Amino acid sequence: xxxxxxxxxxxxxxxxxxxxxxxxxxxxxxxxxxxxxxxxxxxxxxxxxxxxxxxxxxxxxxxxxxxxxxxxxxxxxxxxxxxxxxxxxxxxxxxxxxxxxxxxxxxxxxxxxxxxxxxxxxxxxxxxxxxxxxxxxxxxxxxxxxxxxxxxxxxxxxxxxxxxxxxxxxxxxxxxxxxxxxxxxxxxxxxxxxxxxxxxxxxxxxxxxxxxxxxxxxxxxxxxxxxxxxxxxxxxxxxxxxxxxxxxxxxxxxxxxxxxxxxxxxxxxxxxxxxxxxxxxxxxxxxxxxxxxxxxxxxxxxxxxxxxxxxxxxxxxxxxxxxxxxxxxxxxxxxxxxxxxxxxxxxxxxxxxxxxxxxxxxxxxxxxxxxxxxxxxxxxxxxxxxxxxxxxxxxxxxxxxxxxxxxxxxx
Length: 411
Hints:
Layout: H1 3-58, E1 75-80, H2 88-94, E2 103-109, H3 117-127, E3 132-136, H4 145-154, E4 161-165, E5 169-170, H5 175-180, E6 188-198, H6 203-226, E7 236-240, H7 241-246, H8 259-269, E8 273-284, H9 290-307, H10 309-314, H11 320-330, H12 335-358, H13 362-366, H14 371-387, E9 390-393, E10 396-400, E11 406-408
Parallel strand pairs: 1-2, 1-4, 2-3, 6-8
Antiparallel strand pairs: 4-7, 5-8, 6-7, 9-10, 10-11
Helix pairs in contact: 1-6, 1-11, 1-12, 6-12, 6-14, 9-14, 11-12
């Protein structure tokens, strides 16, 4: 065979290989586009449905109880505190000035040198020690620091009706009246309220706000209305002490990463109702830097994954914005690709805006321009939550084990 013929055959082979590679690349691009269209369509439909479920949820009324005549139990509020947070004193004081006849507030810390202790003592001095108790106790029943802190507080509780309320919550004067009203029904085992994040000043705090107010809370409402799952939201919980003991007590929750979900799971599997109220409290966001935000986002998704693994995994099918971006890239930014991206983003912003209006979230409206970016990062956090088996909580690293539990991480 002549050199010329060999060269010609080589060129023909190269052309065939190029054609095969071009076909393969085109085929993979088509497959990628089809794959991307699934979450784009799924997420867009979900966004529309979430508007309906949110409106439907807020049409429900809180059980009408004339608290002063029909249901007025004495209440103990447990407020675990650790360190100085943004607006800490004003937030903590809101639980001390409630429109309720008889209640006790217990602020608890674990470290006698805790920097928040003088604030707690100031509130106690202002309101009076009959209503306000300050507890210092370093119980260590497990890896969950919040539960350990609560264990020190609950030993001082004088009343059977217990409210667990996070230190970063800002509460209206009718908070106690609203959250305990459903407990008048003996079939109700536990009550929690919705929350919305506020006081976001830095860009990463605004991203945190959007995660909670425009993504997490609508998903909780959607699951509640459709019956897909129940929710027990940790920032604000009411339960009787006797019910809590029947479910194993706080001690049995001390090794769970998502102790609020585990408490709710025990309530609804016991045959009692786990009730989510259409009542909103405010939670102050306090992040020092973008690294804190990143860590907390991964931690939050790990919470959700451990609490409800398969539903969390299935959220890949409703993450419309990041897949719309991939779709536009796969189509090399042509008119069709950019059109799909534009429609997806506009629909996401529109439906999120309606939801934020239902939540009366003015801050969220002002930060909506960041939502597409937040949704894109959300896909990264979703992946990390599936693959990371460690979590950082208040600066301490833990290893996640079976059944949503955690143990201190040892290198």
